[in-house]
Amino acid sequence: MSAITTTIEDLRVMAERRVPRMFYDYADSGSWTESTYRANEADFHKIKLRQRVACNMENRTTRTTMIGQEVAMPVAIAPTGFTGMQYADGEILAARAAEKFGVPFSLSTMSICSIEDVAAHTTAPFWFQLYVMRDKDFVERLIDRAKAANCSALILTLDLQVLGQRHKDLKNGLSAPPRPTLANLINLASKPRWCMGMLGTKRRTFGNIVGHAKGVGDLSSLSAWTAEQFDPTLSWADVEWIKNRWGGKLILKGIMDVEDARLAASSGADALIVSNHGGRQLDGAPSTIEALPAIVEAVGTEIEVWLDSGIRSGQDVLKAVALGARGTMIGRAFLYGLGAMGEEGVTRCLQIIHKELDLTMAFCGRTDIETVDRSILLPGTLPA
Does residue 2 form part of some domain? Predict the structure, then answer.
């Protein structure tokens, strides 16, 4: 390993050096003023832990289940677009790291490696994340491809009917592969490791879409297609249609409101994810850890409640679990590891989070993640 990495921040700094500017910025930014993006992390820090002593700390376990699936810790890798642009074949590498560690991997509709690519290079079933497009025939075929690849759950993202204004992506001219502008070429010249990796793979654009969607064969048609394809008319009726078409475990991502949480619970889905898309959609929305307690109180006995957006440590995972989350998801944290060191970096990310989770749980006087509740937190520091 080229450097000692002890925190997710170490991986972020390394990724910033090694990943081309447009793809690093894609991972490490939010929408508009980025206030929600910053709050997602900052609000975790406000919550304080109760340290307990003279407790037996032997035989600790972080093992639990998420939608009935055994996991090494209550953490899954979140679906993120452009993952294969952080590092060549990134989705395959991250899925392998997750499989070896014993946590679920989620593949985005907007991935670079296709569903079939990831299935061919892994043995554990992974989860597939679906965006609803106007082209319903394409959506049905995506669902069928996920079934054929033996995906064990479908994650339906509900908070991207329209795209949030992400200033850095607009200024960088984000595309896959990057357009050969002078600024891009100058930046790429300073990232030789990344360039060598990309030269060694054929996977450089959206593998689930190119060659599968009608009329999409090259970069120009793809960008036109994505601009017009996200469906602003998405409704709870579509959730029912997708649930029936899929027929398996269904997870609804993007819930931030108690009323929507109740609708999610009554939809028959298996889990909901309290998520604001990493602060990349509605800027000015609350942080996910602030929104979590009310949603758990409203529907936590009817449906598994998970949380993503803002998790950068095992302590964050523990705080989310203490406030009622059955599981959590990490996006940026694993992307930093991937951009820094490929598969080894994703493994390192998972190791860092697991060690922090395990040690913090012990310091709070618990040895089993299943027994963690809000009594490990200092009452005056909790979200209202």
Answer: no
